[in-house]
Amino acid sequence: SNIEACAMHEVLFDIETTSAVMFHAEDTVPNTVDMILGPRDAANHQCRLLREVASLGRLPMVTWGCTNVELGMAVGETANTTTISMLPENAENLEAHALLDFLHDHSWDQGHVAVLYTEGNTESTELVRRLNMIKSCGNQPHDVTVHAFGLPKESRDGPLNLNATSRVLNMIKEGDHNILVSALDFMDLPPVLYEAYQLGMVGEDNIWIYANDFTPGQLEVASKAPLGLLLEGMIEVDPSDSQRRLGELMHGSFSMGWTPGGASYTTSSNTWNRFKKMWSEQTPDQYPDLGLPEDFFKYAPLTANAAMVYDTAWIGLDSYLHRII
Asked: Which of 38-42, 120-124, 125-129, 238-242 has the lowest mean pLDDT?
């Protein structure tokens, strides 16, 4: 019952459903769970909850979004756990270090940085806490002052309170903070970015850095959907801006995200390059039961994160089939 309740609890993002994703369509197949893959990212308490659920059901759980610390596991702990994290030790600090290193490399670490996040988002508040804990980059002290600006929602699962959002953005503008780090979810980004655009806080000398990387689907929406459609019923859009795309407001900004294999993309030993080569050598007739289109393997998955996901699935399946966990 614990596993079923966990599965039923908002597993599908922004989709109304009364069924868990692992429930089979046919009544003849039992509703069973064999392994847990993921999550991609989660707050500490969610990581620990999933680990406990996996432990109770003796299920292999392989995650590429929870570190050992976030899972509540001690260094080197293997007993009484069925969970494997694909992330290295101290990975929970990497995002904050990467962000400040990026600022340092561009000589942007000698002033004020505004971090925008949704109130109640524990991942974002944890990022702010870690940013404030780091006092140097590359053995050199930095002088970054991090200001956290939480944006309230209308309700727990509702949209942002746009009046409060406007007040916060005006505060940032009055404080002359031109480096803005967005820890917002993509669905909350359009009204915030358009309001910032209206206030003259997009482009020119303003630097936007997105701490949450974007999926290919989100980038497609940003490049194709007009602002008039994206913001319909949310915020009044000037007629001259109604056909603009969100991507135009994001132009010149920066995004940070996980890529396995490190940053050395020019070397033949790079993990992502090896994965793309392996992928391109596959053919649909090797997987006759899947009904894959002929050109399925002609294009590599769009993000390097896919390599980590595939590795995660392989480890989870191997652990289950061979009873390793």
From this structure: 38-42
Torsions phi, psi for 36 (to 5 deg) = -120, 125
Contact 312, 275 (CB under 8 A): no
pTM of the model: 0.66
Asked if the bond preceding 39 is cis, omega within 30° of 0, the reply is yes
- The whole-angstrom separation of Cα 89 and Cα 280 is 32
Query: 216 to each of 213, 219, 220, 304, 305, how far by Cα in Å?
Result: 10, 5, 6, 12, 12
Closest CA to 3 of 63, 59, 85: 59
**Parallel, antiparallel, or unpaired for β 36-37 and 254-255?**
unpaired
Do the Cβ atoms of 93 and 130 come closer than 8 Å? Answer: yes
Cα of 113 vs its chain's centroid, Å: 21
- Per the structure block, which two tokens stand in for 278? 């392996």
Local structure of residue 92 (DSSP, 8 states): G
CA distance 86 to 97: 19
Q: What DSSP letter does each residue of 176-202 carry, written as one string?
A: T--EEEE---GGGHHHHHHHHHHTT-S
| pLDDT, tens digit, 9 for 90 and up, residues 180-234 | 999 998 888 999 999 999 999 998 789 999 988 777 678 788 888 899 998 888 8
Q: Which are the contacts of 15, defined by CB distance < 8 A and separation ≥ 6? A: none
